[in-house]
Amino acid sequence: RANAEKFEFQAEVSRLMDILINSLYSNKDIFLRELISNASDALDKIRFLALTDKEVLGEGDSTKLEIQIKLDKDKKIISIRDRGVGMTKEDLRKNLGTIAKSGTSAFVEKMQTSGDLNLIGQFGVGFYSVYLVADYVEVISKHNDDKQYVWESKADGAFAISEDTWNEPLGRGTEIRLHLRDEAGEYADEYKLKELVKKYSEFINFPINLWASKEVEKEVPADEDESIDEEETSESTSEEEEEEEDVEKAEDEKKPKTKKVKETTYEWELLNDVKAIWLRNPKEVTDEEYTKFYHSLAKDFSDDKPMAWSHFNAEGDVEFKAVLFIPPKAPHDLYESYYNTKQSNLKLYVRRVFISDEFNELLPKYLNFLMGLVDSDTLPLNVSREMLQQHHSLKTIKKKLIRKALDMIRKLAEEDPDESNDKKDVEESNDENEKKGQYAKFWNEFGKSIKLGIIEDATNRNRLAKLLRFETTKSDGKTSLDQYISRMKSSQKDIFYITGASKEQLEKSPFLERLNKKDYEVIFFTDPVDEYLMQYLMDYEDKKFQNVSKEGLKLKDSKTKELKESFKGLTKWWKNTLASDNVEDVKISSRLADTPCVVVTSKYGWSAYMEKIMHSQTL
Ligand code: ADP
Ligand code: MG
């Protein structure tokens, strides 16, 4: 093309495309849902803009917020068109090739180890999946602020953008044309496309229409000559036509000389039901539907089911409907970017209109592993995002969402037969089998979030503490605070714990000698975050936490007082000998059995392990 401007793909993107093209991965279906998902995102964007400025929608067909799919069977071209926001020339250049998203290299790495493409959408590079099935792709796009452009690439390391002077004007939106590769011929089939849309794009909130062929039987005159005659007269005026028909009828009655022939016509066929799942009565939604809905929300099309969900309707001053999911696995970057970026996974709708999925005011940071959506009738529709972010109802919504989320997690534990104190010997039902070990799985994936919650959320600290799991000197596997308390000796007032790098290392600690001898149970906190955690978690169910390596450990011992008296001289001498800036005090200890002495941290000081953590962080 004369006016084409050429660009090179950014290196990571180029690598990704190479991998996709050469992929032997058999499930190439995903390209269609990625394109439909992008079309849906673009429609969401224009609908959102239209809330405050009706003009952006234009007029005529442009106002129809829909997705259209067409197939040219002979040329093997699939085209997917939306009336979304479209892309300017600059958008095309940046979004489709030159600026790599943060997930690009992470996804490339993942591809090389697992070879699983299913999560491509989660990494923000779903568009490139088109090259699984196409060897040449055109993206025609019209944005309100720019002319119509064509982006095209044969995935040979380069792409071109040209001002579009030859295609039909789109009005607004994007059309993606996939020129199918020979090996992907199976997609040049309407039934296949229909099946894919039904399977993967059920929960898209815009109509998806397919330009579908339809065989119709038509009666035509049996005589070839007559049909030609008919065509020849088709230019006649309507009055003459009527006359002709009359004549025809009369002739037909005499000798019925018609035959039936099949003819192919085309019309738009709606493929999805746009009724939002969250508006339905939870009792009427099946588990399978929730699972599928989760997959479409999370862009996760593996076979994994979400661990749990909660679908509810909040009434009162602030009305909203919400569905929350606990994903089967933690996303790849959940904790990596925890303190820098915070990306909530909740979609906010106001009266069925998608507003944003970057609304961080809905959930606290520590719950950002949850997926789901909120649709509120109380929030105003035609205000800016900034105004909405400050709306007072958000606080109420947030509070209720946290409550529901924590309830959902608590239930996950309660329903898990492995978690109960009194393990019943009842024959296990299938249902129980499925729930066995589910909380351990949850804890494995998201336990850290619960700990971060204890640090950040003072209001719900106790509820969150109930969800904690850890190992102890007596437990075989993980246990909870409630279970610990139920095993406490009657003479024991505090909850004992010790922090360190691993259970194995801690088991040898001299701090545990006396406690073990006296049969007290001690919690092992072995995660670096536990040190911080215990600075916030002071008590639980009226019991104080006592770090057994810190000052303050009181074990009932009648002899302590006596010993204190008789060794007064020694402790005094010792304290003076070690200059006062080396130790704070020297005391008779009741915590040892065999070891002659230990260094103990003062009550408010850093534990030895904390010192170690801090030291390694400053290096
Ligand atoms: P993601 O959808 O996760 O952002 P993709 O690789 O699927 O990643 O798409 C990249 C970007 O290209 C999108 O973020 C969007 O800006 C742009 N884009 C893709 N398809 C469309 C479309 N149909 N209309 C408008 N913009 C689009
Ligand atoms: Mg996408």
Describe what this molecule looks like in 3D.
Its main location: endoplasmic reticulum. Keywords: ATP-binding, Calcium, Chaperone, Endoplasmic reticulum, Glycoprotein, Nucleotide-binding, Signal. This is Endoplasmin homolog. It comes from Anisodus acutangulus. It is found in: Endoplasmic reticulum lumen. By secondary structure, this protein is of the alpha+beta class. Helix content is 35%, strand content 19%. The chain is built from 20 helices and 19 strands. The chain has a nine-stranded mixed beta sheet with strand order 1-6-5-4-7-3-2-8-9. A hairpin with a 5-residue loop joins strand 4 and strand 5. The longest helix has 23 residues. About 2% of the residues have low confidence. The structure holds adenosine-5'-diphosphate (ADP) and magnesium ion. Magnesium ion binds next to helix 2.
Q: Give the overall pLDDT as a whole number.
A: 87
Oligomer: single chain
Number-wise, the strands total 19
How large is the count of helical segments?
Answer: 20
Measure the end-to-end span.
57 Å
Structural class: alpha+beta
Largest sheet: 9 strands, mixed
Outline the low-pLDDT stretches: 226-236
Residues in helix, %: 25-40%
Radius of gyration: 34 Å
How would you write the strand order of the largest sheet? Answer: 1-6-5-4-7-3-2-8-9
The proportion of residues in beta strands is: 15-25%
What is the 3D shape? elongated
Which distinct ligands sit in these coordinates? adenosine-5'-diphosphate, magnesium ion
GO molecular function: ATP binding; ATP hydrolysis activity; ATP-dependent protein folding chaperone; unfolded protein binding
Protein name: Endoplasmin homolog
Family: Belongs to the heat shock protein 90 family.
Subcellular location: Endoplasmic reticulum lumen
